[in-house]
Amino acid sequence: MEDLKLNNEVKNITYPFYLKGNDFKELSLKALPIKKWIDENGQELAEFIYRQQAWLMNGGYKSQSLKDLKLVVSKIDYVFRKPLELIKNFKDELNFIRKDILNLENNIKNNHDSLKNNVINIQFQKQNEIIENHKKEQFLEIKSIAKQEQELKIITSNFRKDKLLIKDIEVIGINDDFLQKADKLELINLIKNYLTIDEQIVKNEIKDQWDSNKDINLIGVKGINFKINKGEK
User: Fold this and answer.
1) Global pTM?
2) How far apart are CA 209 and CA 104, in angstroms?
3) Which residues pair with 173 in a beta bridge?
């Protein structure tokens, strides 16, 4: 039923350009390139619109990669570019026939925007699927598209560390360089919390930060030399 409905709509596609050459004498010559383009390419454009609408409705996009969808967007731009350029040039000089020209522009532009926006929405849907599924091979595809478009952010996966055991932590002492370069707040926190170098407190803090996936460089641990005897962080 959906295909039948779409087919009927496509058969009824018209291009609302009703002006005749006698209506504006010499100015009518500027309308001829548009009329000529419609006569020569209008049916092909209608068929392109139908094919793209059917492709979207039938889910043809599902098997396409993000790169392929980007090419579809470029193709839609290319197909609609020429008639829209002709219309724009004509519209700028013939304000008194503005209504008819705008009707034609809107007819073509609405089809352009509808097709293009549908494909762009599919791009974002696929992007969200990649984020949700954490597929490593698709991360590389997202990163490549981000470089080209400068719109998408590079996505990285945050893997949790192994649990750290207290026995794996060795507290060595206060870092001399830190004492010389530390600001007032850092010194206050160091003196307040770790002046006596309570190894259990320091080890607990390091373990909590490690297990919570934070950087082990926070005030309270900063300034204390320690060693983790369990591979590298």
Assistant:
1) 0.36
2) 64
3) 225
